[in-house]
Amino acid sequence: MRINTPSYAIPFIFFTLTALFFFSQTNEMINHQTLGRLTKNWTVVDGQKTLQSIPFHSINDSTVVRWDAEHYLLLKEHGYDVSKAGSDFIYAFFPAFPTFWKITGLSAQWMPVVNFLLYIIGLAILYNLFGSRLQATGIWISMSLPSIIIFLIPYTEALFFILIAIGIFGFMKQKYLVYFIAMLLAALTRPSFTILGIALICNEFLNLTGHKNTRQFLFASFKMVSPLLLGTFLVGLIQYFQGSGELFAFMRVQEYWGHKLGWPSKLTDWSHQGFDLNVAILFLLFIPIALYLMKLLINNLRSVTIAEPISDRAVYLRNLSMIYILGTVLFVVFFRGGSLHCMFRFVLCSPFAYILLFTLPSFKLSNKRLNWGAGMFSLLALLTLTFVEYGRGWNFSDLGFFILVSSMFLLINSDANAKTWFRLQLSITFGLNVVWTAWMFNSYLGDCWIFA
Length: 452
What we know:
- With 452 residues, the chain is mainly α.
- It has one domain (66-445).
- It has helices at 5-24, 28-33, 68-78, 82-85, 96-104, 111-130, 136-142, 157-172, 176-187, 193-211, 214-244, 249-252, 272-302, 313-335, 343-348, 351-359, 367-387, 399-412, 420-445; strands spanning 41-45, 48-52.
- It has a two-stranded antiparallel sheet.
- Strand 1 (41-45) and strand 2 (48-52) form a beta hairpin.
């Protein structure tokens, strides 16, 4: 089913409303009479990040280039020039996005628009493949996710999103060349094999427990993973010829971030905004997915009959999406000492989160069971945010958590989209996300990128 005109218009409605709200808040009087009554805005004073009663920051080539965007801009203009970067940590950043940025010829202030366009094109691809049951409701819920802010900054997520979406399109339509090229380019955009490559192999192993055919497992694994391996090798090759002197510099420099396997002593984050979203992901996605996959694996292992390899490609990708999210959470928790920073960005800004969103009706679970489960896990998340050491009093920074929880309940009850209560909740959630996204984008512009 194709997206009809109103469905295509929804992302543009969101972008327009967010832009209008953002620019209105750059006016001091309007800000003080509206959002300023609810919260202050992040900025830097004397080198310290702080909340101040000031209007939103302006958008220009300087304010749009913050944190990792500075490294991508450097790569765009100078390549892997260690002397310009000041350290060889620059090899941790992959070349596809800076190259794409350079090809556009656009200045930094236009990249939020470009990245959002990449995102909605990728979203349209996924919707056309998986979203027929949810129809326009799926797009409204997609635009109500509090992670959309990530697609408005000069980071790799939007390019990675559309490339993986194109690769999934190739897989679904059995066009392997399209899949291969798109996945290879995705591997040039950001480290892909660490999570996605392993997730593909794990998904094939899950299939192996059903069809019991080792040769099929090895062949399918190689076929799915090979473009990621080649793309990762090409990254090393590009860096080698630009001065790294080694093929795997991008792996060695990870030590600067202190990533190592270990049991987390406590859960922390770089920010309260990010911590809220990450705790929600732990309870509302990670635990249910882990339980579902465990049950599926046990059923396959107990079965004495040999099943046919999964022929339904949508089911294959649904399982892959769950494994990808499971692997991402496990990596963040156990390789960062319990610091959850960036987890919601890696999970919610991946195409696999949207595949799960669009295919939830295919699980054929009762709404009553899902609502009870979501309610229980939401309560556990609230208790965790209240009592863990990193917790604190509730304030505007927690809005993203409640937006995400509301979006989850809307998704579960999407078959009630004609009812008044559903439309009211969706309208409120969508509107709050407009405000949240503009506020978070302003935090980024103010050099207070502490939430991802």
